[in-house]
Amino acid sequence: MNLYSKAIFLAVCLLLLSGCWNSKELDDLGIVVAVGIDKTEDDQFLLVTQVINPSEIATDAPTTRPPVSIYESTGDSLFEAFRNMTEKSPRKMYLSQLRLLVIGRGLAEEGILPSLDAFYRDHEFRTAFFVTIAKDTGVKDLLKVLTPYEKIPANKLMHSMEAVQRSLGSSKGVVIDELIGQILSKGQSPVLPGLLIDGDSDIGTAIENIEKIDAPTQLRIDNLAVMEEDRLIGWLTPEESKGLNYITGDMKSTTVSYPCGDEGLISVEVLRTDKSSKAKFEDGDPTISIELELEGNVGELDCPIDLTKAESIETINGEVEKRVKQKMEAAIKAAQEDFGSDIFGFGNLIHRKNPAYWKTVEKSWNSKFKELKIDIQVKAQIRRKGNSTQPITKEE
Amino acid sequence: MKGNKTNHITPPDAQPLHSSLDDNVNDLRTTLGNSSDFVTRLFSIHKTSAAILYMDGLVDKNTVQNFILESLMLEIPAKRPITHHLYESIKKANLPIGELSEVEDKHDLLKKLLSGDTILLLDKETKALSISTKGWSDRGVQEATSESVIRGPKEAFTETIRTNTALLRRKIKDPDLRVEAKTIGRKTCTDVAMVYLEGTAEKEVIEQVNERLDQIDIDAVLESGYIEEFIQDAQYSPFPTVYNSEKPDAIAGGILEGRVAILIDGTPNVLLVPALFVNFMQSSEDYYQRADIGTLVRLLRLFCFSVALFMPSLYIAFTTFHQEMIPPPLLISLASQREGVPFPAFVEALMMELTFEVLREAGIRLPKPVGSAVSIVGALVLGQSAVQAGLVSPAMVIVVAITAISSFVFPAYNMAISIRILRFPMMILAATFGLFGIILGMIAIVFHLSSLKSFGKPYMAPLAPMIGKDQKDVLIRLPHWGLLSRPSFFTKSDQKRVDSTSKER
């Protein structure tokens, strides 16, 4: 055997001996779409995974088998719990397609940072999944609910969350990168969306739940949870949640309604918001000024206003400005007085503006935040008034 | 350059002709083994015996009848010259035939005889007249079968080299068009012609072609493939470095770019050198359709090149290594199709690709009336039953189908063959190393392509090395009034193609 053929022989060996070690066929994967984590009573990690059953989802002939399955395991660490899961599941858990991480309330109150490490460190996770908190329900119960219309419950939750964020603004999706960044940042505390079960969780887990037109048990996106560093400390109301989104600039579109006339109501559709916030220093004390410009349409009108007149548009502008400002102030009030947690990231603004000052307050920022002066300016612009200038009312 | 050069074929010792007619005729009969198609017609011209020799089937009988036999037997004037002047006078005055030559050697005579000439032998004369009467039934100029176009000339080369040179002459009526003849093949004595434009084609290339052709010593040349394998640069590369086409317009286009065409008797496939990678991506129709669609089609072909080469390997890599790169809804759909398929994706792909190759080969070989059987078996058995039986997943059938269709897009069949070959190593690389393997394979292919040369020209020119001025006719095609100069990677002289003022604005 000459040198040449020896070299080829070795090259072929390399190819045959080393290859394929991490190759896995699609039908060997348990595709995990949602993971729930919590603490058990004996202080172990509880891990719940929602695995899809592909042949049930992409099929022409559906059977009565559920589209997803749930596996549960416990362990001293999350990583251990993942491996313990193989005792029950037929396939290795494949986590790259994870959409949703649900954190149990108990764990969230205790502090989530240690358990996030496994999700951030492992190369298999993509860092684009949403982190949520199960409000008033166990994570397992929550992940067990079968959802109508959207076959995969995790997808339903993700899509609902995106829809809420896009057109209602009372909640928002938080991905793990963002969450960890905010936990570690001294100048901002994170918020997380909550998840709720509407109805009986035992009915929700059975296939009958999705055989009804009006599914008795449904999953719902709730308002935002306020965290202090990595611990859950309370919940915002829907109005406060909207206010928070206005302040952080995450508001895409929402509605603002206010009563007008005797019993009528006027609803304005907010189409676009443009926020700019600045930190200012007056006599060594920081102030935050927030300027919010928003544009909207008249969406619904049920009171005698003549929209053809410029004054009525001005009135609506003024009312909208007032309502929005109220929401923002409510959010600030809740954060400052009830929770004492800077969920708006004002600390970061000050840090950027005056790093030297920030050094002195960094340690005790949350107590300083309580006394922070915040100045809000809202400018509303109604662009379109819809197809008619008058409400549809009976002539009296 | 020496015309009519016949290396290695001349026998070591020349054999002069006998002076007796009978000896000559008998000698030739023995040499040809009394072949049944060897015709000898003995007659006399004013008491001098003479003989007409020809191979039946290779000559045009009308010519032999009307212009040779008739004029020799009936029209020679009664007042005859003396015998030893007879030969000269016949040569000068009595043969109304265009092409006439003298032979004095038996081997030359045999060669002429066997290529369709009629030999006139006179008694007591050691010279013979060879009269060109070539005329056999050939296919005639017909429509091209392997390269069809929507717009553009439909004619194709034939098996007869003279017809083929004529087809080229008719396209390029320039006095600089050179047709250099050669004979290659000890037994077949195949006529080979180099056709190029003097002054436009580079001297070095012409010399190279001459040199490489003269070096060939082979007993038989039956097709241009024989010559191609002798003269191509990269003997062990899957990529072709010699272009071939059966369309006179494509070859004429090449000649006008300063390239050298090699015509071989007996085949309609004409070779064209130097041939670069981009030439195989171009079709002559690109120049006949509008420039914009010509450009788009060229880009489409490049896209199809990558699809045909990488599609199955990418599918294997994504589904067995990089599932996180597949969008979730697609992943779920693919995963559900994979449920119950007993083979790994690689084996599945290999199986389907092999089956397709078998089908394709069978489709070519089968006689036309049976041909449709293959498509039925192919469409039904593979497309549907294999999926229904759970042997392969539907997605794999789609992948194989797209790959197959993409590989049919190339105007040059020999480039499609290289892709067919390379697809399989790419699939093995994908199955062993995933995307990493595909990238390795791709790097290797790019390295290899960049190292190739065709008759001294870098194979990837004008992309590597990048020649900005020649980009007008590579991936894009400018309108004809914008193709101002010939591609500079083929020729440096006689650059001008279009006068820049020739288009009215």
TrEMBL record, chain A:
It is a lipid-anchor. This is Ger(X)C family spore germination protein. Pfam families: Spore_GerAC (PF05504), Spore_GerAC_N (PF25198). Gene3D superfamilies: Nutrient germinant receptor protein C, domain 1 (6.20.190.10), Nutrient germinant receptor protein C, domain 3 (3.30.300.210). It comes from Halobacillus litoralis. Residues 22-194 form the Spore germination protein N-terminal domain. InterPro entries: GerAC_N (IPR057336), Spore_GerAC-like (IPR008844), Spore_GerAC-like_C (IPR046953), Spore_GerAC_C_sf (IPR038501). Residues 1-23 form the signal peptide. It is found in: Membrane. Belongs to the GerABKC lipoprotein family. GO terms for cellular component: membrane. GO terms for biological process: spore germination. Keywords: Germination, Lipoprotein, Membrane, Palmitate, Signal. Its main location: membrane. Residues 223-386 form the Spore germination GerAC-like C-terminal domain.
Automatic annotation (TrEMBL), chain B:
It is found in: Cell membrane; Membrane. GO terms for biological process: spore germination. It is a multi-pass membrane protein. Signal peptide: none annotated. Its main location: membrane. It comes from the Bacteria. InterPro entries: Spore_Ger, UPF0353/GerABKA_families. The chain crosses the membrane at residues 299-321, 395-416, 428-450. Residues 1-22 are annotated as: Disordered. GO terms for cellular component: plasma membrane. Keywords: Membrane, Transmembrane, Transmembrane helix. Belongs to the GerABKA family. This is Spore germination protein. The lineage of its organism: Bacteria, Bacillati, Bacillota, Bacilli, Bacillales.
